[in-house]
Each structure stands twice: as C-alpha cells, then as structure tokens.
Amino acid sequence: MFCDDVWKRSARLIRAIHEHPFNTALSAGTLDRERFAFYIVQDARYLEAFSRALALASARATDTEDAVFFAESAHAALAAERTLHAGYIEEFGLTADDLAGIGTSPTCLGYSSFLQATALADPYPVLAAAVLPCFWVYQDVGTTLLENTAGVEDHPYRAWIATYSDPAFAESTERAKNITDRLAATTDDATREAMARAFFRATEYEWMFWDSAWHRETWPTAEWLA
Ligand SMILES: Cc1ncc(CN)c(N)n1
C-alpha cells in the first residue's frame, strides 16, 4: 500500500523528528516558554494555510464522503486546534500587539505556501498525499509523547499532547491514510510518484517546522530592510 511504503521510506526522517531537541524537551517538559511561544505563534499561522488547503481538498474531492472528511478537518484545524493555541497564547500573556510583532518565519511561510500551491496547481491525489503528514506525523509524535509522559503530573504541555494523542485525531489520521491509499491505487504511475514526493516534502517541512521553532528562525535579510 502507498501509505505503508512512503512511511517506511521516511523512517529515518520520522526518527529525526522524534529525536529533535524540540520534541525531546517537549516530552521532558523542559522546553522553554520562548521556544514554545514561537512555535505556537507560527503554528497558528500555519493552521490557517493548512485549513485552506483542506477546504480546497474538500472542493476537489471526487467522493462525497471524502469531501465531508476534508471539510470537517478544515474546520477542526481552525476550531479545535486554534482553541489549544489560544489557551497557550493567553497563558504566555501574549497580546494582539505582541503577535502582530512576530514575523512569519521562512519555514512557516515555505510550508504554508507549499500546501497552498499544491492545493491550487497539483492533481487532487497529490494534494491528499501532501496534507497526510500533517495528520500522521502529529498523531505519531502525540501518541509517543503520551506514552513517554504517562504518570507525569502537571506536565506543562499536557494540553498539546492530549490534542494529538486523542483517539479522535487517530481516527482522522486513519481516514486520511485510507483516502490517500485509495487514490494511489486508482491513479497512474506518474501521479503516484508525485504523491510520494509531496508526502516526503511535507514530512521534511514538519522536521523543519520544529527546527525553526528550536532556533527561533528569522529572515537572514531582515536587518537590510527598513
Ligand atoms: C506544522 C504543523 N503540522 C501539523 C499540525 C497538525 N495539524 C500542526 N498543528 N502543525
């Protein structure tokens, strides 16, 4: 099956995501607030782009049930996930002015633009493969963090871990995988290859997203602009 195949081929990258200092510190509860705040602010922006890509997937879906799934996921990305973010933004005491003053990072813009370009210009099966890591990688990391932090009371990132280890999120991930497998099984070789490339690129961006938060990435050219 397509999903099993691309997941196996991404094994080293997935391991690198799990072993990234951002995620090991998140798991240990030692991740500093500045890095997490940076991540949350970028992620709120990313989720808008992700939600739009899902809405476009819904519009382009050839199967009604798939259209419903993508539309519901587009809503969930902005509703459920953003509620999580809003909670942390409040906890960190970030005001609207603070948020407006934090620029969108190169990686956040790159990932968001990649998803939106794929949604607008690539075949629908390629779009399904491009959004799949956004479900699968988070579900994988979320459930691993839940296992690793079981029994830890007052974990500072418990709400984040709970969101992505939730059985309902696992169910959505399963649905996204089934849709992608079905599309891969019924398309031509060239599109299947493009699907694999889109899956790998999105998974690379997932690693980069955590890495950019760890380093609080900025534009290297910013100082030359007024
Ligand atoms: C960067 C990123 N990728 C995926 C997810 C999970 N929807 C997220 N919140 N942020």
TrEMBL record:
It catalyses: thiamine + H2O = 5-(2-hydroxyethyl)-4-methylthiazole + 4-amino-5-hydroxymethyl-2-methylpyrimidine + H(+); 4-amino-5-aminomethyl-2-methylpyrimidine + H2O = 4-amino-5-hydroxymethyl-2-methylpyrimidine + NH4(+). Its EC number is 3.5.99.2. Keywords: Hydrolase, Thiamine biosynthesis. Belongs to the TenA family. Residues 10-214 form the Thiaminase-2/PQQC domain. Pathway: Cofactor biosynthesis; thiamine diphosphate biosynthesis. Pfam families: TENA_THI-4. It is an enzyme of class 3 (hydrolase). Catalyzes an amino-pyrimidine hydrolysis reaction at the C5' of the pyrimidine moiety of thiamine compounds, a reaction that is part of a thiamine salvage pathway. This is Aminopyrimidine aminohydrolase.
